[in-house]
Amino acid sequence: MVDIARERAARLAALPLERIGGSYQSFLKGTRHAVRDLLGHRELLGLLVRRELKARYKDSALGFLWTLIRPIVMLLIYYFAIGYFLGAQRQIPMFAIFVFAGLTLWGLWSEVLTAGTMSILTNAGLIKKVYVPRELFPLAAVGSALVNFGIQMIVLIGAMVVFGQFVFTWDLLYLLPGTLVILVLATAFSLLLSALNVYLRDVQYLVEVSVLMLFWASPIVYSYQMVHEALKGNWIEQLYLANPITVSILAFQKAAWLPGPSVQTQLSEDMGIDPATFMPADLDLRLAIMGIVSLLFLWFSHRVFLRLQGNFAQEI
Q1: How much is the pLDDT for 300?
Q2: 81, 96, 115, 229: which could join 141 in a potential S-S bond, CB 3.0 to 4.6 Å?
Q3: Which of 114, 145, 293 is closest to 210 using CA atoms?
Q4: Following DSSP, what letter does each residue of 177-208 receive, concatenated?
Q5: Contact 142, 186 (CB under 8 A)
Q6: Which of 146-150, 266-270, 293-297 has the weakest average pLDDT?
Q7: CB 116 within 8 A of CB 298
Q8: pLDDT digits over 246-279, tens only?
Q9: Contact call for residues 78 and 95 (beta carbons, < 8 A)
Q10: In sequence order, which residues have a C-beta less than 8 Å from that of residue 284 and are 6 or more positions away?
């Protein structure tokens, strides 16, 4: 038995070392190999997404229903407590729809960013045991966040219908580019920061602070028109509009909130404000630029991730 074991060990030692998962060193070929590897593990990605969703409400009596209950309760709070009792409705018509539209998109960004940053460390046990494309773990966080985003979108559209704010206009198309810019950018940051967080654990705390700062640097609980009136188009306003999260949220509000008949009436007739001032004039151009920049940044982040993943098992 000992001789058989020694002979087997000798045969294994004589085998040449092989790179698992292909070569990712070349910029173009490496990207192609990585994408092909991910597509080959798409079923595993689906399993990881389902695991993320089940773990979130494990041992809960209502389970996945909480994903629906929470946004409905939040919408009612903004509609009654803040919109009417605190008077936000007087400055921003249909305040509940306005803020919930921004929060829906913001929730996608923040959930992908925070969960994606921790995804490699969270799955340390699996990474140490078997080889799978490491990108699957940040992408699983993206998939889980997309499911929650879809449920919040159902709540948002339902609220628009109930409050009489759902209007079939071309502005509804702004939902797509607004979502795509946030999704691509959040995925890019998720890949980059999850890799950096393995080597420098302060990254996760930096993300928490950044998420808090970016929330208040985006027009979610206040309107862009207030910013425009305060800054008068100076360089600080241009810097404010250089934030892709700001531009994406403005696109979302233009689709879900601004075309509403009561919003248009209260702005133009009751408040004497041109509804067009609630959006920058060059929103389309900014969305296009942000989309291209986000795609390039996604490619760059993926390349950095591939370069850093080699020592994940040793570092964690």
Answers
A1: 93
A2: 115
A3: 114
A4: HHHHHHHHHHHHHHHHHHHHHHH-THHHHHHH
A5: yes
A6: 266-270
A7: no
A8: 999 999 999 988 887 777 777 777 676 777 777 8
A9: yes
A10: none
Burial class (CB in 10 A: 0-12, 13-18, 19+), 33: middle
Cβ–Cβ < 8 Å for 162, 100: no
Task: Give the model's pLDDT for residue 96.
Answer: 83
Neighbours of 195 (CB within 10 A): 24
Residue 241 falls in which region: left (phi positive, over 0), alpha (psi -120 to 50) or beta: alpha
The tokens for 41 are: 């593990």
Geometric angle at alpha carbon 138, from 135 and 142, rounded to 5°: 125
Three-state SS sequence of 62-80 = CHHHHHHHHHHHHHHHHHH
Q: How far apart are CA 137 and CA 143, in angstroms?
A: 10
- Residue reference for tokens 């409050």: 163
3-state SS track over 224-282: HHHHHHHHCCCHHHHHHHCCHHHHHHHHHHHHHCCCCHHHHHHHHHHCCCCHHHHCCCC
What totals of helices (H) and strands (E) does the chain contain, helices first? Answer: 16, 0
Helix/strand/coil for 132: coil
Residues 112, 118, 120: CA angle, nearest 5 degrees: 110
- The domain limits of the chain are 28-72+100-311
Predicted structure pTM score: 0.86
Across residues 41-52, what is the average pLDDT?
Answer: 84
Cα distance between residue 196 and residue 213, in whole Å:
21
Q: What pLDDT shows up at residue 41?
A: 78
